[in-house]
Design goal:
Blueprint lengths: L6 H16 L6 H15 L4 H4 L18
């Protein structure tokens, strides 16, 4: 679709996109970084990657082994 547009139309679309983006509210990284850190720390107790998955509820555990005689 973009190949069918002239350079002027493409530039106009870019300008319109930049106008939309400039209206996006910005939040300082100092505030968002603290919010992310607080969220991660609050969720750490239920995080399976940190805590591990109990063997009885692990859907990926091996069901049985191979026995060789």
């Amino acid at each position: 679709m973009a190949q069918d547009l002239s350079e002027k139309e493409l530039l106009r679309m870019q300008v319109e996109q930049l106008k939309r983006e400039v209206k996006t509210p910005r939040v300082p990284i100092s505030r968002t970084g603290k919010e992310i850190k607080d969220y991660v720390e609050a969720q750490a107790g239920s995080d399976a990657l940190l805590k591990g998955v109990p063997e009885d509820t692990n859907p990926f555990r091996e069901k049985g082994g191979c026995l060789l005689s």
